[in-house]
């Protein structure tokens, strides 16, 4: 008989506010971005990003499929900067060389930003690098560091398990969307479509829904 698969260690301990470095692919989709920023605003995570991450966010949001003007995107980025004045991680450029051959070159700035943040933190708390692209940002690239790489849904699932207030924060978030409005069921579907299936299931349970 094959040995039982070891259970994955939770990324979030009860009472802990995780330090999170967000890749552009988490900040580009509107609802996923709102989930993470609202959780940060509520003090349930400490969200961070780098200059090049924001450049990538802007470049992508200006693509025709998003239908946004330069003015609206720049306003979004200003609002993020105003709401989270300590989020921007600076001075990571010299660390990009650390990831030669272990990450995709175009993602070295993301890896360097997360590593820089971990070096700024005292007390031994890990930094969680949240990305939808673990293929080009593998955990092995961070061997010997205090950086953990994970997908958005994995962190969100663990955060909800550690703090039920996540469900309350996201109910409040839904109420802000007016044009168009979004229901609880709609958000759960969006999360599932964003490869956050496990989180969508646990969030549905917290909201009293049963998903098939």
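^ structure tokens above, recovered residues below v
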């Amino acid at each position: 008989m094959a040995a039982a698969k070891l259970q994955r260690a939770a990324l979030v301990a009860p009472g802990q506010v995780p330090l999170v470095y967000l890749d552009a692919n988490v900040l580009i989709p509107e609802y996923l971005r709102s989930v993470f920023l609202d959780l940060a605003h509520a003090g349930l995570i400490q969200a961070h990003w780098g200059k090049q991450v924001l450049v990538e966010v802007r470049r992508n949001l200006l693509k025709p499929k998003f239908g946004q003007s330069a003015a609206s995107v720049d306003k979004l980025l200003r609002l993020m900067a105003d709401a989270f004045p300590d989020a921007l991680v600076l001075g990571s450029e010299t660390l990009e060389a650390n990831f030669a051959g272990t990450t995709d070159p175009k993602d070295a700035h993301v890896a360097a930003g997360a590593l820089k943040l971990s070096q700024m933190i005292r007390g031994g708390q890990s930094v969680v690098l949240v990305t939808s692209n673990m293929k080009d940002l593998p955990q092995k690239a961070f061997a010997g560091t205090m950086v953990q790489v994970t997908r958005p849904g994995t962190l969100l699932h663990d955060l909800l398990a550690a703090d039920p207030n996540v469900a309350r924060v996201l109910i409040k978030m839904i109420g802000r969307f007016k044009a168009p409005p979004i229901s609880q069921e709609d958000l759960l579907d969006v999360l599932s479509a964003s490869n956050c299936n496990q989180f969508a299931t646990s969030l549905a349970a917290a909201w009293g829904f049963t998903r098939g």
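The radius of gyration is 17 Å.
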